[in-house]
Amino acid sequence: MAVYGTSCHISSSSSWRQQQQERARQQQEQAHRQQQREEARQQRREQAWRQQDEQARQQRRQQQYQQARHGAGLQAAAAELSAPEPDVRSMSEAELRAFLETLGMSAVVAHLDSAAPCKRGSSAAAAASSSMAVLLQLAQHCLPLWEAQRLVRCSKFMSSSRATACAREAVARMVFRLDVSSSSSSSSSSSSSSSGSVQVREVRKRFKVLALTVHPDKIPKFVQPASGSQELFTEAFEALQQAHELLVHSCR
């Protein structure tokens, strides 16, 4: 009987140890699976971080590339954007025709040509002189159109998402045909306030002249029939205002 009791006790102890061992094994497996899940999550997080870092690097490279292209394009277009008003009085008849064609006035020129009578001899010379005078007058009346187109080209550079603050200020100076090298971003911080006041006065002076030239309410009668002239002058005037505000603010 004692042997039977001892045997039962041993069997019970063995079963208890097996249960403990099984429980410990399950806990180890559970801990191992938990560790694997945590490692997998950590790997996913690290992979996501690497992807974000790579995307950020690609975006920075793309922005640098676009800014470099924009800067190169701005540098190449600087002479055109800040070009002085064309001296139409010094142009030949062929140059006047080419100038008017670039402004989209070919139809008006063709109408003038068709309306002019065909003459020979001395009458032909007089007719040519008269035609030259008409072309010159038309070109002079179309100078505001040329100015409006220049300001719209400046506006496209200023409003570009790739333009830096320095580039926007440079284009704003081109609008008023000011020296780009003396912009506030490149000037010394020790510059006097009096020179800034002089610059603001100069900007405002040139703004008034250009505002009278490209104001949407003052479109020349020769230009009014042209398609989109109202929209063009409106956009040009807005570009002029934007450049004026930018420079006046930067000079303060």
From TrEMBL:
Gene3D superfamilies named in the record: DnaJ domain
Segments of skewed composition (Basic and acidic residues): 20-57
Sequence segments annotated as region (Disordered): 1-88
Biased composition (Low complexity): 61-85
The organism's place on the tree of life at top rank: Eukaryota
Protein name: J domain-containing protein
